[in-house]
TrEMBL record:
Residues 26-133 form the Ig-like domain. InterPro entries: Ig-like_dom, Ig-like_dom_sf, Ig-like_fold, Ig_V-set, Myelin_P0-rel. Keywords: Disulfide bond, Glycoprotein, Immunoglobulin domain, Membrane, Signal, Transmembrane, Transmembrane helix. This is MYP0 protein. GO terms for biological process: myelination. PANTHER family: MYELIN P0 RELATED, MYELIN PROTEIN P0. One of its GO terms (cellular component) is plasma membrane. It is a single-pass type I membrane protein. It comes from the Eukaryota. Belongs to the myelin P0 protein family. It is found in: Membrane. Residues 1-29 form the signal peptide.
Amino acid sequence: MSQGAEGSGCLLLLLAGLLAVLGPSPTSSIHVYTQREVHGTVGSPVTLSCSFWSSEWISEDISITWHFQAEGTRDSISIFHYAKGQPYIDDVGTFKERMEWVGNPRRKDGSIVIHNLDYTDNGTFTCDVKNPP
């Protein structure tokens, strides 16, 4: 993040969608869509959108996981997981008290909201969707 962006209180959050392949057939894949870049203002909320498409019906075993890789680091951490119809916000890290699940897998939506943005939230967020047969 440049010094000028810090002065304006603006954050750039990068999103990456993952393609979860369920088998060798191309009709068994899930296509995940996110915005390439999301900008937010320090102190405000931001929605990280994650939509997906599958040629298969949405299973009760669908899982959605969000990962975060801080700017300038190589490691990513899991910050959110949805499985068995329940959202699980990881209870460690800086996001634990600031995250809200707003997705609905039946509508092919795995979106989350991060409240009270901070400069340390700058980095890459990845949405990973799995729809087991």
